[in-house]
Specification:
Umud Fragment, subunit A; elongated; 7 strands; 2 domains
Length: 284
């Protein structure tokens, strides 16, 4: 059995052997290149994905988060909306009563006296084509608002009076038409924006990611150990005979083990239980 201990000890020594300086340098350089590649993929991959969405949707804002309740109960605050380009002539017209017009996303900067910083998501309740400008103009309104845009009245005392200022939205201010939504998920963005922790949180996550990647790059032996450990956990355990077949042959262990195997003619306990006959029980 001493040969077994010697072979196992030799194997452990080989596993614990340090990398040569050349191997360390090569793996360190490889790790640095890998770290730079991963960071570049994370940064430019996210940017590329969003740019791809803009290209496919045909709009600068393919995904937006609703930050107000002006479209309730059909569209709620915190919903994520998906937007795509639709030719102005194909945007569906509707009425205030029916609320069956297209929901559009448009920019109020340059239209309203007090424009919103974010694009407006409201429904089309009127539409006309101007022959002089050769442009389409749209009348919009929030489903929950009491008057058309700009919504300067939010109570029942002054809905759509003659004093209200009505401003139509020209087609060149329209960003796109809403075609789908996911409810509530946008609350994460609203919470991060309201608490002003979005940028610090992204910075912390980015620094942690960079430190982790750089550490792996500068310590290749640690990464090698982790890979070996995970590989060992995934390997199927070999039998003693497969590890040291010569030992079994020399010391006759294989014969000793084979002699202790149960005979094929013996019945297992489960077989004996299932073969019990009715006559073996006394029902008197």
């Amino acid at each position: 059995m001493s040969s077994v201990a010697e072979k196992l000890g030799t194997t452990k020594k080989r596993e614990k052997a340090d990398l040569t300086p050349e191997e360390k340098k090569r793996r360190r350089n490889k790790g640095i290149i890998k770290a730079v590649a991963v960071i570049a993929i994370v940064i430019f991959g996210s940017w590329g994905f969003f740019e791809g969405m803009k290209l496919v949707a045909g709009t600068q804002y393919p995904v937006v988060v609703v930050v107000s309740g002006s479209m309730e109960p059909n569209i709620l605050k915190g919903d994520i909306l998906f937007v795509h380009y639709v030719p102005p002539a194909d945007i569906k017209n509707g009425t205030i009563e029916d609320k069956n017009g297209s929901v559009i996303l448009y920019n109020s900067v340059g239209l309203w006296e007090h424009p919103e910083s974010e694009p407006i998501v409201h429904r089309v309740v009127g539409k006309r084509f101007d022959n002089d400008t050769q442009m389409w103009y749209f009348l919009t309104k929030g489903d929950h608002n009491l008057d058309v845009d700009p919504p300067d009245c939010f109570n029942s005392l002054c809905p759509n009076t003659t004093d209200d200022e009505i401003i139509e939205v020209p087609e060149d201010h329209i960003v796109g038409v809403v075609w789908g939504r996911i409810p509530y998920i946008g609350w994460v963005k609203i919470w991060l924006q309201d608490t002003n922790i979005a940028i610090p949180l992204l910075v912390i996550i980015g620094i942690a990611l960079v430190i982790s990647i750089v550490w792996d790059a500068l310590n290749p032996e640690e990464e090698t150990k982790r890979k070996k450990q995970s590989k060992k956990r995934g390997e199927v355990l070999a039998t003693p005979k497969e590890i040291l077949p010569e030992l079994f042959e020399e010391e006759g262990i294989e014969n000793a083990l084979s002699s202790q195997k149960p005979s094929s003619t013996e019945e297992s306990p489960s077989t004996q239980a299932t073969s019990t006959k009715k006559e073996d029980f006394d029902f008197s």
